[in-house]
């Protein structure tokens, strides 16, 4: 506080030092208590926040184990120059021989030579592929390049691409179907202004219908519209409008890339579909790693020995959440139905996950591998659950989210700590106002006392002087 900072004029007392000492006698202990409380709340927020993060990591690590698609997957091998192969988990395990007999191709037509500046002919051209058609109208002045643009720009055209090949002053119109397969064959009919729709003059020179009773072949077929064909295991012939064969073998997609020449010495392609359960061990190890990290953090936060006390030593929330998670490890979860029709149950340890003396988890790979080889459904049902029961993952996730979700136990505790910190800050403001008032009051009191002492000193000096001046008064020597 700004005020008198010099010794008392009348009393000689160190007023500032006295007032400061009295104020500090109240202020310092209070400040120490507040600082300690703020530190406790801040430390708790940090500690409980790190616990939340570790719990969320455990929750995240369970996601893969809770996804049924990650179990009993299939691996397809046998890719070579002739085929590509992929599979879903629905594919049957087995070995197959595959011969590529033909590749799919699109239909390609080319017109004869037409002068680039000469109108192609007036009339209407109808282009049809697999039952879908669109019309292009050519005027008396439409050139071949303009006809190309009319074809490509037509809003109804989603089946054919028109291009021009130029040879000197002559041009050739090329039509190519966008799709492959026999069904992509192009049919072109014309309504020629000259009344003859199939001759080789005017717009009719672009007519093409190989399937008509009387074929019209005024354009040249460059590439036939062909289906792809493969033979599986030497007996089953399968065709496809594309080079992809989906579910010719259940759950398997075969892509034809090159035709086999068996007579020329090509070997048949060999495809193998095998079961892949590597995701199971990967998922369990990820869970174990995240849980062990949680155990390490819990030990650190809850430590109360050797003179080093953790931030959450003796904390009921830390103790409860760890206890509840561990109880999941000894809970039976439904895993299937026995041959006698009874529901079967298993605990985590039966899958090879062990709890060590330290509280950490470890994996007995031999136990897990044996179960994967003999009963992968049991593992899937344990983690994912069945139609009638919740699995380990969902049950544990619900437990963890009770603590970690927005407005969960941890968030409410952090919010409570922040509320207490805000209250302390307001209390400090009020206390500082109180101390300012005390300081002002003390200065007023001591200054008043000092003034009174000065007045008394002046009065004493005056009386002494008057006595000294009285007749007959003898001063002490």
H/E series: HEEEEEEEHEEEEEEEEEEEHHEEEEHHHH
- Number of helices, where a helix is a run of at least 4 consecutive DSSP H or I residues: 8
> For the report, how would you describe the main beta sheet?
5 strands, antiparallel
The rounded distance between the terminal residues' Cα atoms is 49 Å
Provide the domain count. 3
Radius of gyration: 47 Å
Which structural class matches the secondary elements?
alpha+beta
Task: Kindly report the average pLDDT value.
Answer: 90
The poorly predicted ranges are 1-6
Task: Tell the overall outline.
Answer: elongated
% residues in beta strands? 15-25%
Quaternary structure type: single chain
Lateral arrangement of strands in the main beta sheet? 1-18-3-14-15
Number of strand segments: 22
């Amino acid at each position: 506080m700004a005020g008198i900072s010099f010794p008392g004029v009348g009393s000689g007392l160190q007023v500032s030092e006295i007032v400061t000492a009295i104020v500090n006698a109240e202020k310092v202990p209070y400040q120490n208590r507040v600082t300690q409380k703020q530190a406790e709340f801040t430390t708790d927020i940090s500690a409980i926040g790190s616990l939340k993060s570790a719990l969320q990591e455990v929750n995240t690590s369970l996601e893969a184990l809770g996804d049924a698609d990650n179990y009993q997957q299939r691996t397809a091998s046998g890719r070579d120059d002739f085929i590509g192969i992929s599979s879903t988990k629905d594919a049957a395990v087995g070995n197959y021989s595959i011969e590529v007999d033909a590749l799919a191709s699109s239909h390609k037509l080319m017109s004869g030579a037409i002068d680039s500046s000469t109108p192609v002919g007036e009339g209407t051209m109808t282009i049809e592929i697999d039952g879908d058609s669109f019309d292009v109208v050519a005027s008396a002045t439409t050139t071949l390049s303009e006809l190309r643009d009319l074809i490509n720009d037509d809003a109804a055209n989603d089946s054919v691409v028109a291009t021009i090949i130029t040879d000197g002053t002559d041009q050739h119109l090329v039509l190519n179907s966008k799709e492959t397969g026999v069904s992509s064959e192009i049919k072109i009919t014309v309504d020629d202004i000259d009344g003859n729709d199939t001759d080789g003059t005017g717009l009719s020179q672009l007519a093409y219908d190989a399937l008509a009773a009387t074929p019209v072949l005024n354009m040249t077929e460059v590439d036939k519209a062909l289906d792809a064909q493969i033979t599986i295991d030497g007996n089953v012939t399968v065709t496809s409008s594309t080079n992809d064969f989906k579910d010719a073998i259940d759950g398997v997609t075969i892509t034809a890339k090159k035709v086999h020449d068996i007579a020329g010495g090509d070997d048949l392609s060999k495809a193998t579909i095998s079961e892949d359960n590597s995701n199971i061990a990967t998922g369990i190890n990820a869970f174990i790693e995240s849980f062990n990290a949680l155990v390490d953090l819990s030990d650190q936060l809850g430590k109360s020995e050797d003179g080093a006390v953790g931030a959450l030593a003796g904390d009921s929330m830390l103790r409860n959440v760890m206890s509840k998670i561990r109880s999941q490890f000894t809970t039976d979860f439904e895993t299937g139905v026995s041959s006698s029709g009874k529901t079967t149950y298993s605990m985590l340890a039966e899958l090879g996950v062990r709890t060590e003396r330290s509280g950490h988890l470890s994996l007995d790979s031999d136990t897990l591998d044996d179960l994967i080889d003999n009963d992968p459904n049991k593992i899937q049902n344990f983690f994912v659950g069945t139609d009638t029961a919740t699995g380990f993952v969902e049950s544990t996730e619900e437990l963890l989210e009770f603590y970690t979700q927005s407005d969960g136990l941890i968030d409410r505790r952090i919010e409570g700590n922040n509320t207490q910190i805000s209250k302390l800050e307001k209390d400090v403001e009020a206390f500082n106002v109180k101390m300012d008032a005390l300081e002002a009051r003390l200065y007023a009191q001591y200054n008043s006392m000092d003034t009174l002492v000065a007045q008394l000193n002046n009065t004493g000096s005056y009386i002494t002087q008057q006595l000294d001046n009285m007749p007959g008064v003898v001063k002490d020597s």
